[in-house]
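INTERNAL AUDIT FORM
Audit reference: QA-55
Scope: verify that the stored structure record matches its stored sequence.
Auditor: D.O.
Record contents follow.
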Amino acid sequence: MRPVIDDMIQELLTRHRANGRVDLNDIAEVIGGRPVSYEEVEHIIDRLESEGLRVAEPLDAGDVEVLRAVLASARRLADALGRRPTIGEIALACGHAPHAVRRALEQAGRVKAC
């Protein structure tokens, strides 16, 4: 496997080992504009799962708790600032990493759309 793929896997493990879950959007974010094959994406997913991470599974209670904290912080900040807060501001306010805040906001958008 190409070294860049191993680098992507390490970045994903660093970001998500603590919460044990990786969304497909997280993988896409780490890949960015770099060209990868379907086989390489499968390899990334297989490696993450072999390390004990859940990939693209439904939200669990911990995910919902992060979502609640992010949304509560975003609302408080919006009221205090008089504008929509940035990802970084929300992350500081709720104590979660920016990528976790971004995912929570994406999940909130999906829930509202249903």
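Auditor finding: record pair retrieved intact. The mean pLDDT is 91.
Action required: none
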